[in-house]
User: Which sequence fits this backbone?
């Protein structure tokens, strides 16, 4: 069975600085997808970034980038130039390629950006 | 991007009554939709998978007679909390994936905050 682990329940960062959120996963499959979702106080789940396992290049979306280490089964999220609006719960998620099932979520990391 | 609309966003009901929550995919079709419950400061807990045209698949420990799920079309799933009690008060979220491309992310509704008094 696939599992997703986020080992940091809470983190904080100063505005304009950089922070990295950790995520590890476990699977014996080779075709899968990884995601980071953000859940702000409004509780709307928002996709931040996605990574296809077959791609070696790390995904990047503006200030958000990932460090995807397939052999280590690690998928960390780096937020550069942190903004107050980045304050949210961040969930790492996994799904097998071609699966019609649900995403498997980690327990989340609460990120607070301080002015 | 794809949009999932969930309604209502907030509902307060009396103990013993039933409440229906709708989840619609607005610009794509979803063979399956997912219903989650989220307790404060916790992750999403999958309750059930809603399958278009067939019975829902419930996770262990979720009472199927209490949480009725109907997926009558490729764009609509409903969750009915029957005979609600205060312990059913929670945040419920639905999600859906585009059946044309199962390698995409899941799209989420806005969530429903249910309060049973």
Assistant:
């Amino acid at each position: 069975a696939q599992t997703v682990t986020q080992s940091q329940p809470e983190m904080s960062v100063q505005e304009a600085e950089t922070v990295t959120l950790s995520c590890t996963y476990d699977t014996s499959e080779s075709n899968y997808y990884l995601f980071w979702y953000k859940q702000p106080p409004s509780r709307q789940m928002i996709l931040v970034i996605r990574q296809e396992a077959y791609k070696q290049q790390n995904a990047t979306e503006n200030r958000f980038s990932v460090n995807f280490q397939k052999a280590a089964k690690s998928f960390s999220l780096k937020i550069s130039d942190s903004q107050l609006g980045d304050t949210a719960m961040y969930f790492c998620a996994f799904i097998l390629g071609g699966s019609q099932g649900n995403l498997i979520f980690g327990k989340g990391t609460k990120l607070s950006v301080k002015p | 991007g794809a949009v999932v609309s969930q309604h209502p966003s907030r509902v307060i009901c009396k103990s013993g009554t039933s409440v229906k929550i709708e989840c619609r995919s607005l610009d794509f079709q979803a063979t399956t939709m997912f219903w989650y419950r989220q307790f404060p400061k916790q992750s999403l807990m999958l309750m059930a998978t809603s399958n278009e045209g067939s019975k829902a698949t419930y996770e262990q420990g979720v009472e199927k007679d209490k949480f009725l799920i109907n997926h009558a079309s490729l764009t609509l799933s409903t969750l009915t909390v029957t005979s609600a009690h205060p312990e059913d008060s929670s945040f419920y979220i639905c999600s859906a994936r585009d059946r044309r491309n199962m390698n995409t992310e899941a799209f989420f509704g806005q969530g429903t905050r249910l309060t049973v008094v």
